[in-house]
Amino acid sequence: MKMFKNIYTILALGLLVTFASCNDDDKMDDAMGMEPEAVIGADFSVDIEEVVNLDASSTTGESVTYTWTVTSPSGAQVSLANATSDMISFTATQEGEYDVTLVAVNLAGTSTAQSTITVINPTYATADQMGRPAINTVFNFFGDADTKNGYNMTTPEDGNVPSAGFKGILDALQTYIGLDPATYTNVLGLDNATTASVLATDVLMSNKNFPSTYGPSNPSDIRLGENVLNGRGLGDDVVDVTLILAFGGDLQNLSATQQGLIGDGVAGNDAEFSATFPYLAPAN
Amino acid sequence: MKKLIIACSVMAVVGVGSFLIAADHIDAPAVGSLTTGSSAADITDYYAFESKENSENYVFVVNVQGLTAPAATAEASFDEEVMYEINIDNNADNVEDLVIQAIFRNGNLVVFGPTAPTQTGLSGKVETAGTRVSTAITAYGDTPVVGTSGGIKIFAGPREDPFFMDFFQFVSIVNGVGAALGDEVNTGVYDSNRDSDPDTEGVQPYPASFKGNEATDTFAGSNVLSVVIEVPKSSLGTSATFTSWAESKRKQ
Questions:
Q1: Superfamily of chain region A2-120
Q2: pLDDT tens per residue, range A252-272
Q3: What keywords tag this UniProt record (chain B) (predicted)?
Q4: Measuring CA to CA, which residue among B53, B52, B146, B224 is closest to residue A282?
Q5: B7: which chain A residues are within 8 Å (Cβ-Cβ)?
């Protein structure tokens, strides 16, 4: 077997092509059949990470043996699981041109075919954007289609939304329940203008040095970016945190209405989360 | 403010049932609506938290295609034309310094990064310079298939929607705000004599707050398609603090 492999390698290098053609007389053809003609099809393009399938089964000739060589855009040879089959496949992990060579060999001779597979790395454009929970929903609640779509297609660098709109909504919600938005400060000590400007850039803050949580378990111990608004866990009650920031004031002297507005009454998820990856509960 | 008042009036007329949108479920018509449903480009929720398995790791979750009923979940699929990108900003300028990208090919999830992107902002390409991990998408009902490489773990497949909220009570309250700003009195203040349902006899006041004893998780029983990626904290830059956000990006 090893000897055969060596012979194929030599054939693949084309050194015996001359030899084969020197012996191209009728008697040899009768004894050995027809020389193969390697066929691998035309060049084509795929997107990056697609599986490239190449089929040489249209190659002619008796008892043909195949040797494929695929060179990636970086110049390295692609490792092929089935390099001596009439069909190969590989994943196009690099952008650029893959050069494919097929050498088909039988006792009558050798034939080589080549093709080029072009791998495209396409451009992707933003369709939806999300940092903190409920921003587009709550603060663009009154927005029209263009406003909602526009929010999703704006980068945080450009400020996802005008913060004046956010402030207007906070003001309206507080006025509704008899609070004075002009003097309102939330549990973080932020007035509506400041809260609005923070929320208008829709990113989630994280601090790797503290366990992540969206809201504090203890309202009298509040450290912004450490135990408040530090990441977002699966079980974090982000709705209650948002309601507390919008309606809770300093939480010390709550009216009956405020008491009923700082929590939606749904304390947790209906399914239990797992302690191990991927953490989310199985689908219903 | 005037714009808000007009918008509130419109909303009050439209009424309660038209706003089944929450954390970010069907938040904008281009990615999903009540009539078209939530698409693979519609991010319903984004989570970023310290790993429960290993405090040296951080976990990112992007959920899409929300409000998927159990009967429709086996048919729900990721879109090969839609990439999910987690953006990480280490220096508080709101520009991504690192990205983690997820794409789908032939039933597989392929994840790249974290790596510095060659291009920031609204359009980009697959960034192949960093770690590449690939694994099969987990089918509905199957045990999670987890891909691992270079300290990174990845998963993609249907999961129970972890978001919880009494969305309908919230909408009833906010519709009351809209009515208060839009009625002839236009006080903007709660009034128990303001009728939420003029077609019914007697005054049906708007709720001023949540009724805890009637609390219902609007999202109980529904599913999402989920992508979960766990990486070493050390791969997220040297700063202790960072900000992050998720994007869906569509092939052009």
A1: Immunoglobulins (2.60.40.10)
A2: 889 888 999 999 999 999 999
A3: Signal
A4: B224
A5: 142-144
Query: Which element (helix H / strand E) includes A140?
Result: none
Ordered by start, the domain boundaries in chain B are 2-17+166-214, 39-162+221-250
Name the β-bridge partners of A45. A118
Q: What mean pLDDT, rounded, does chain B reach?
A: 87
pLDDT in the model for residue A168: 87
Q: According to the model, what pLDDT value does residue B222 have?
A: 95
8 Å CB contact of A265 and B170: no
Let me know: does B58 contact B88? Beta carbons within 8 Å: no
Quote the CA–CA distance of B39 and B28 in Å, as a whole number: 11
**pLDDT at position B215 over 70:** yes
| Residue predicted with more confidence, B84 or B185 | B84
Q: Indicate the DSSP class of residue A113.
A: E
* CB B48, CB A205: distance < 8 Å: no
A130, B10: Cβ pair inside 8 Å? no
pLDDT digits 0-9 by tens, A41-52:
999 999 999 999
Q: Angle at CA B63, nearest 5°, toward B58 and B65?
A: 170
Residues 166-205 of B with CB under 8 A from A: 166, 169-170, 173-174, 176-178, 180-181, 188-190
User: Where are chain A's structural domains?
Assistant: 2-120, 135-259
Tell whether B90 is within 8 A of chain A (Cβ): no
Q: Give the span between the Cα atoms of A213 and A226, in whole angstroms.
A: 8
Q: For residue range B64-78, list pLDDT tens digits in order.
A: 999 899 999 999 999
Q: Which of A79-88, B46-55, B174-183 has the lowest mean pLDDT?
A: B174-183
What angle do the packed helices A192-200 and A163-176 form, to 10 degrees?
A: 140
Task: Give the residue-averaged pLDDT of B128-157.
Answer: 97
Q: What SS3 class is residue A196?
A: helix
Measured between beta carbons, the chain B residues lying within 8 angstroms of A264 are: 165-166, 169-170, 210, 215
| CA–CA dist A85, A55 (Å, integer) | 9
| Backbone torsion region of residue B188, taken as left when φ is above 0, otherwise alpha when ψ lies between -120 and 50, otherwise beta | left
Residue A270: per-residue pLDDT:
94
One-letter identity of residue A255: S
